[in-house]
Amino acid sequence: MARSDEAAAFSCAVYDAVQQIPYGKVTSYGHIAKLIGTPQRPRQVGVCLKHLSQDAEAMFNHNNVPWQRVINSKGIVSPRSQPSGARNQAAALQAEGVTVTTGALGELMVDLLEYGWFPDELPSETEDEAGEDE
User: Fold this and answer.
1) Which of 29-33, 84-88, 125-129 shows the lowest per-residue confidence on average (mean pLDDT)?
2) Could you give the CA distance from residue 104 to residue 12 in angstroms, rounded to a whole number?
């Protein structure tokens, strides 16, 4: 099925925003949606990340979009269809120095007060505005 221009633009906006999350920090699907101007679409952010290309030649792919830095708004690594998916995400976060704990129900959790990244706007937008003032 061909993707619409709107869907492609949305995916590019998601991937660009996720690339701006600092190393060792996390944010939520909802916050990415808010930052790109579609606060009502956090689930679609998750869908974009789910379908992130494995092809290293693709403009946006698993190597250049730090998908692991996006978790749910409760600080929980969202479960996947395969149990290893959440564990892989937790391992990728731990490799960045993020502490991932296991909750009472086995959920993998990150302390958003310590590791959360929730700017009012994307750093690239702040830089663009600064350049316009000069």
Assistant:
1) 125-129
2) 37
For 18-75, how does the pLDDT look when each residue is reduced to its tens digit (9 = 90+)? 999 999 999 999 999 999 999 999 999 999 999 999 999 999 999 999 999 999 999 9
Q: State the CB neighbour count (10 A cutoff) for residue 3.
A: 11
SS (H, E, C) the chain: CCCCHHHHHHHHHHHHHHHCCCCCCEEEHHHHHHHCCCCCCHHHHHHHHHCCECCCCCCCECCCCCHHHEECCCCECCCCCCHHHHHHHHHHHHHCCCCEEECCCCCEEECHHHHECCCCCCHHHHHHHHHHHC
Alpha carbon 59 to its chain's center: 17
Q: Which residues on neighbouring strands pair with residue 76, listed in sequence order?
A: 109
